Amino acid sequence: MARRHAHSEEAEINITPMLDVVFIMLIFFIVTTSFTKETGASIIKPQAEQAAALQNGTILIGVRPNDEIWMAKRPIELREVRQMVERAKAENPEGSVVIVADKGSRIGTVTRVMDQVKLAGVEGVAIAAENPGG
Description:
Helix content is about 35%, strand content about 15%.
C-alpha cells in the first residue's frame, strides 16, 4: 500500500484589494483637500468687533504698512493687482477676494487695491480683521 504524504500548503493573504482601497482613499483626499493660501507678507491684522469668518476667501492680497502689496507670496506693483486677480478668478470663479491689510497700512493704498480688484470684475471684496475675543 502506498503511503500518502500530506503536503502542507501555507495560507496566503491577498492584499491587492486592500491596496486598491487605500489608493482610492488617497486620491479622494488629495482631490477634496483645499489648501490655505497666504499672501506671503507678515501682517498684523486690525481688530473688529463684527469680524466674521469668510468661507471661501481664496484670493488673498496683503498690504503692509510700508505700502508694499503682496500676492502669491511675492511683492507686486499696484498695476499688477488687476491682472493677477483676473487670472486667479479665471482659475476659481467661485472664489472671493480678501484684502489682508496691516493695521498700520494707509487707507489710500487699501482703497487703490480695492479699485483694482473691482476693475478685475470682482464685486465682493472683504477686508481681513481679527475678533478681539480671539
